[in-house]
Design a protein that fits this description.
By secondary structure, the protein is of the alpha/beta class. The chain is 38% helix and 20% strand. It has a seven-stranded mixed β-sheet, with helices on both faces. 44% of the residues are buried. Bound molecules: ligand AR6. Ligand AR6 binds next to strand 3 and helix 1.
């Protein structure tokens, strides 16, 4: 599914984040930045050991923030390591921290002149964030940013399977009503 928001194409795709040819891919990292399972493990395996050597130098990253490294053996030139929150239904800061992980990734990309970026569904695997709650936050944060700044040609969400994709597709359809003057479904 694709939508045009101002000058940016927003795309939802089912697939593997490590195979994307966008200038940057985003990692669903933890605050140590020293690797892990899920997206993080897949990105480190595909990028090679030089990636861990670089992230070791960074000294970690707070939840809701992001750091940038090179992409090494990946097709993407850069990896942006975003740290989403561990889900807790009774913590009112959790949605803001998730939004912040997306926003900080976009800010870092913009600062580096990156024009295309691919995101996974941050926090919705090992970190337990319910997809139906996370998808509108992820898409809403990206839509707000790309409505405000003409920094990107393409922002892509790479969803790992059909059921994750369909939750994001539903959330995007709902969100596009709010952007109906500047967005089209293709
Ligand atoms: N491409 C795209 N999406 C993927 C891929 C892939 N190759 N692999 C998994 N997913 P997770 P989190 C989906 O657990 O919840 C790590 O150990 C997956 O189905 O990777 O933010 C880190 O080191 C899910 O929808 O990230 C942290 O400790 C989504 O990506 C912790 O997990 C995110 O799942 C971060 O947990």
């Amino acid at each position: 599914m694709r939508a045009q928001i101002k000058t940016t194409q927003l795309e939802l795709l089912q697939g593997d984040i490590t195979r994307q040819d966008t200038a940057a891919i985003v990692n669903a990292a933890n605050s140590s930045l020293l690797g892990g399972g899920g997206v993080d493990g897949a990105i480190h395996r595909a990028a090679g050991p030089e990636l861990l050597a670089e992230t070791r130098q960074l000294g970690g990253c707070a939840t809701g923030d992001a750091r940038i490294t090179k992409g090494y053996r990946l097709r993407a030139q850069y990896v942006i390591h975003a740290v989403g929150p561990i889900y807790q239904s009774d913590d009112p800061n959790v949605p803001q921290l998730l939004a912040s992980a997306y926003r900080r990734s976009l800010e870092l990309a913009r600062e580096h002149g990156i024009r295309s970026i691919a995101f996974p569904s941050i926090s919705t695997g090992a970190y337990g964030y319910p997809l139906e709650e996370a998808a509108p936050i992820a898409l809403g944060t990206v839509c707000d940013f790309i409505s405000q700044f003409a920094a990107f040609d393409l922002v892509r969400f790479v969803l790992f399977n059909e059921s994750i994709y369909s939750v994001y597709a539903d959330a995007l359809r709902k969100l596009l009503h709010e952007y109906k003057t500047s967005a089209t479904l293709e």
